Amino acid sequence: MGAFFSFFRENLRWIMGGFLMTFCSSFGQTFFIALSGKEIRTEYGLSNGEFGGIYMFATLGSAMVLPQVGKLVDIISVSRTALIITPMLALACVSMAFSDSFYMLLLTLFGLRLFGQGMMTHTAMTAIGRWFAGHRGRAVSMVALGQQSGETVFPLIFVFISLAVGWRNTWLMGAFFLVVFALPVIFGLMRVERQPRSTDKPATASTSRDWQRGEVMRDGLFWAMSIGVFAPSFIGTSVFFHQAHLVEIRDWTQQFFASSFVIMSVVTVCSGLMAGQLIDKYSAVKILPFFLLPLGIACILLGFIEARYGLFLYMALLGVSYGTATTLFGALWPEIYGTKYLGSVRSIIVALMVLSSALGPGITGYLIDYGIPFPSQIVVMGVYCLAVSVVMLFVSRQVANRQQTEIAAL
């Protein structure tokens, strides 16, 4: 524990800078946007499927643009990247407050997804993946706490503030926070970039070379990993986006659902920190086969248990998978594909994750409209996670064997 706090103190500025970026990504995350979902559907006269479709197209658009915008972090400094993307995210928040047409809503969602979920998280994780080596898992787990902290505090804050000043003014307050408070702090913390040190030598085997983006896209093992890696974003986004529908059919309240995020966030933080220690000790590749198992069980429980405790069980198990996955994904790609082209490589990966999060609300929303119960869909997602975990075991072994072969050939 002493080594943990010593590491935190020595690297405080970079960890806190990354933490604040992932924290601010909340404004573009599904859970935050969904807090206004009922009001948006009411004001625009949209069904669950129609709103999910708009959200899907906006997110697909952001996924298409992200690979190009994401290369910024390979070209300019992290602090200058923050000077671009943070005001753009704030502008999208302002747009949400004043949107009054279908097309404005579509553009607003596009901006929130691109600069919030996409670029804020991508920039922070790329920086940390590049700046740290032997303690990468530990560093990533600390930075990832920003997103979990956002999931903890924002739902309840949004619900109570929106009751006082309205949901549109709450978005305006979010823009004010980004520009006046967050941006100066992020820039100040990240303007000095960390250089990896000799003491950062990885304790586990990793790639012997730096892969370019085209090589990664031609790697069969990358696509095999993708069927598991992108599952949490599809499933989590679907459930959070349609929380108003789930609350309605289960006879819960929006406040009750919002309160359950606290459970998820606490468990996510603990599992994320634990995953960081395990990754530094064993490697991200060896952790890969296990991160979907809790999510699979969580989905099956939520699908079958209608009582309120079913939601708490789901959120707790979801937190285990989310915490592990967030830390895992921050360490996995530099471990497998190197750090030189990490911004370019991660931009494709993040774009594909955004794509999966786009498909979730759209597909599940239309299935709801066509009469397929949402709980039944959630059960199917759980079965998928359990099946794919077996595939991830095979993939993990193949990647580890390839790494050992490359290192032995040096």
List keywords for this structure.
Growth Hormone, Chain: A, 410 residues, 20 helices, globular, mainly alpha
Structure overview:
Helix 17 packs antiparallel against helix 20 (374-408). The chain has a single domain (2-190, 210-405), classed as Growth Hormone, Chain: A, CATH 1.20.1250.20. The chain has helices at residues 2-10, 12-24, 30-33, 37-44, 48-69, 72-75, 78-98, 102-131, 136-165, 167-190, 213-217, 220-229, 231-241, 243-250, 254-282, 284-287, 293-304, 308-337, 342-369, 374-408. It is an all-alpha fold and 410 residues long. The model has no long low-confidence stretch (mean pLDDT 85).
Helix content: over 70%
CATH topology: Growth Hormone, Chain: A
- Segments where pLDDT lies below 50 for 5+ residues? none
- Secondary-structure element pattern, one letter each: HHHHHHHHHHHHHHHHHHHH
CATH architecture: Up-down Bundle
Give the CATH level 1 class. Mainly Alpha
Q: What is the H level of CATH, i.e. the homologous superfamily?
A: MFS general substrate transporter like domains
Q: Rough shape?
A: globular
The count of strands amounts to: 0
Strand proportion, as a percent range, falls in under 5%
Number of helices: 20
For the record, give the distance between the C-alpha atoms at the N and C termini, rounded to a whole number.
Answer: 36 Å
Helix/strand-derived category reads: mainly alpha
